[in-house]
Amino acid sequence: MSASFAKALEAAHDAAGSQNHPASTLYVVATPIGNLADISLRALHVLARVDAVACEDTRHTQQLLRAYGLDRPGSQLLALHQHNEAEAAQAVVNRLTQGERVAYVSDAGTPAISDPGARLVAAVRQAGFRVLPLPGASSVTTALSAAGMTGDKGFVFTGFLPSKSGERQLAVQALAQDCRAVVLLEAPHRIEALAQALASLGERRVTVGRELTKQFEQIDTLAAQDLPAWLAEKPDRQRGEFVLVVHDAPVAESSGEGLRVLQLLLPELPLKTAVKLAAEITGESKNVLYDVALSLKKT
To answer: DSSP H helical segments within the chain, as ranges?
Structure first.
């Protein structure tokens, strides 16, 4: 452990040592997504104090803990990943029953978002034990914070789109109908196919985050239709882990025709049917018309 991390660990105990960290509790701990310095003082304190650490990959987590001077024997590391989460969750519950404190970490970032952990949390809660989250690094919020959007319409976290071409294209078509921002994840061997699919969104802006927080981090914003050319321009752009933010879609000015058609259809048809027909007749956004229809129903 370097001297700097030794000081960080000392500061962590000073900062969080007086806080209550109850026994028989699962601590869901966010870890860095690439930069070791992005660990919180509270996370260091809890990882040093718990009786066991459940983790997505025991080898990866052991290396992470060693970097902070928190080396643990193998018996205190429990493998819990997408293939064994149900069985491993019961092992964690058994430890909590014995009064232990158990932390859970994924390979990087905040557990139970795209990584394993959700089933574990559900099992622990069902067994009647407490779950305490320790916030920290997340590729989702990191990318959103650098996208430059106001967030007025909110955002949707979708994660990985389907790997099959047809299913992926259908997912993109559905995405195109949503005016909210959408956060996607992708691996390097599939980024080119995703870029081709997203190109159908035309001028809609996309922020591409590659290797976020790491040495060769890259963040660029461009039109969706330009994504394939951007990737092809330099071979390095197809390397690393990707987070993409499809920006919220600008709302086109309404001609008023959609409102007029809705007002004619709503008294005669169910709301969803009226919205669907009004969108098909006028070409206006189904989502916008749906919101208008809800407002009309309330009045």
So the answer is: 3-16, 41-49, 58-67, 85-97, 118-126, 139-145, 165-176, 191-198, 227-233, 257-265, 271-282, 286-298
At a CB cut-off of 8 Å and minimum separation 6, what does 53 contact? Answer: 47, 61, 65, 72, 76, 77, 78, 102, 103, 104, 105
- The Cα 239–Cα 48 span in angstroms is 34
* pTM metric for this prediction: 0.81
Amino acid at 67: A
Residue 113 tokens read as 């978002």
The distance of Cα 110 from the centroid of its chain, to the nearest Å, equals: 8
pLDDT tens-digit readout, 258-286: 888 888 999 989 999 999 999 888 888 78
What are the structure tokens assigned to 237, written together?
């752009």
Q: Residues 17-39: pLDDT tens digits?
A: 899 999 999 999 999 999 999 99
